[in-house]
Design goal:
Layout lengths: L1 H27 L13 E14 L5 E14 L3 H6 L1 H12 L5 E2 L5 E2 L1 H16 L6 E9 L1
Antiparallel strand pairs: 1-2, 2-5, 3-4
Helix pairs in contact: 3-4
Length: about 140
């Protein structure tokens, strides 16, 4: 008689402990990470030969700077950005005459970080917020 009673008790105890272990594991395990949205395909739009005034810290005109830059945008917005490049050039010119971009002892070298900051600040005005992700200065020289 002991065996007849012992078998269902052991079976119930095994099922109960297994179910309790699975429940505890589900409570303690962190939720599965959701799949991240696919990263957008990015492309660079080349902006050749931008001519801008090179202003010294005291506001005097030191000369002009010619530079090329690349704008990192989503691939589906390349045509729109290319079409709106004249607006970017206008926005860059409206900012460079107020910002001291001259570097070096004689003020004839352009400040590349300043040029990048000007282009990045002018991009939302020309294309809208969030269109340009990064700006790369590919060439800068006094004109």
């Amino acid at each position: 008689m002991k065996r007849l009673v012992l078998l269902p008790v052991l079976l119930a105890a095994g099922l109960g402990s297994g179910a309790a272990g699975a429940f505890a594991l589900r409570l303690l395990k962190p939720p599965a990470a959701e799949a991240a949205p696919p990263a957008p395909v990015l492309a660079f739009v080349a902006v050749p030969k931008v001519l801008a005034p090179l202003v010294m810290a005291d506001g005097r005109l030191a000369g002009y700077v010619s530079f090329d830059l690349g704008l990192e945008v989503e691939a589906d917005q390349v045509a729109t950005v290319t079409q709106q490049l004249p607006m970017l050039l206008h926005a860059i010119n409206m900012r460079t005459y107020r910002m001291p971009l001259a570097a070096g002892p004689d003020g004839l070298l352009p400040d590349v970080d300043g040029l990048r900051a000007v282009a990045l600040a002018a991009a939302p005005e020309a294309f809208g917020r969030g269109v340009v992700r990064r700006v790369a200065i590919t060439r800068a020289e006094p004109a």
